[in-house]
Amino acid sequence: MKASGQPMELLQGTLDMLVLKAVSLGPLHGYGVLLRIQQISGGRLEVQQGSLYPALYRLEHEGWIAGEWGTSENKRRARFYRLTAAGRKRLEAETRKWSEFADVVGTILKAAREER
Question: Which helix (H) or strand (E) holds 3?
Fold first, then answer.
């Protein structure tokens, strides 16, 4: 995310959810996942490749995404990922959790100082 023109750091635990969301919009190869997250965020989120590929491996190992080899737009061999049924359930659960969390944090940040 960008603050003062600089990309913001991802909060711990958000990368998996963002990858699941990106892949839920259609099959993507690894670098495509990174680009889709940047595109959807309007460039405010920047995912590092060094974090992305271990996340893809972890999500595939958990059975939340499935990968298969194919050919990318630039004619290179690439692994394309799609969301599984288990991944869809996980994304729905994570989305609910993060929405509730954001709502609670927003409520706390809007709290006014008590008059004494």
Answer: strand 2-3
User: Measuring CA to CA, which residue among 37, 13, 32, 24 is closest to residue 83?
Assistant: 24
Phi, psi of 70 (to 5 degrees): -155, -165
Per-residue HEC secondary structure of 48-86 comes to CHHHHHHHHHHHHHHCCEEEEEEECCCCCEEEEEEECHH
Each residue of 59-97: pLDDT tens digit?
999 999 999 999 988 899 999 999 999 999 999 999 999
Residue pLDDT, tens place only, 16-70:
999 999 999 999 999 999 999 999 999 998 888 899 999 999 999 999 999 999 9
What is the set of domains in the chain, with CATH numbers?
2-109 (1.10.10.10)
Q: Which helix (H) or strand (E) holds 2?
A: strand 2-3
